[in-house]
Design goal:
- The chain has 205 residues and is of the alpha/beta class.
- The protein is built from nine helices and eight strands.
- The chain has a single domain, classed as TIM Barrel.
- The protein has an eight-stranded parallel β-barrel.
Length: 205
Amino acid sequence: MFSNKLRGLYFIVGESQFLSHDFNNILSKSLDLGLNLLQYRFDSEDFFIEHEEKILNAIDKVKSYESINIVNNFYTLLDRFSFDGIHLGQSDIPLDLVKYISNDKIIGVSCYNNFNLAKDAVRYEIDYVSFGAYMQSLTKQNAKKMNKKELKKVSNFSLLPKTIIGGINLSNIDDCELKNFEMIAASKGIMECNDLDKLFMLAKK
């Protein structure tokens, strides 16, 4: 259903960004420019409950563009908020149990710099994989930057749609190393961008 949407810029929003006065305008502009995926990366279930109305409004806006709403980690909230899918880290839930979450939801997993984890994802019928970090990032400061050998290896992974994450913004989104990735994930790279038109244009090349 959503396989043709697993491409382009992948917007990841954290709590402070979601609550910023700029978020709604940036989301609307991004959707107008072709944003296909929005991930809600919040730290606690309490945040979802406290800001339920605002979150549901964002979800409805994304759905109105036939784009995808992804929740990070909290699979217990999939149905309550009608998310289209979930993104999981390797420590969130064993991959052999992921299939029991839901048959009709998109499931993505973080594979960091590990090619073998991505191959495991194929075996467990995951929908997409994420690799990183491309660059050091203020959003996830403990994420290890991939070296050139690791980056080259994971960029050649072709069994599932893949996204690259970590410090990607207008200054580096056109790097040739990113061309083999179906999706490019960004957080501050979108929220703090002074030329979203150019950012989305370069992401499509």
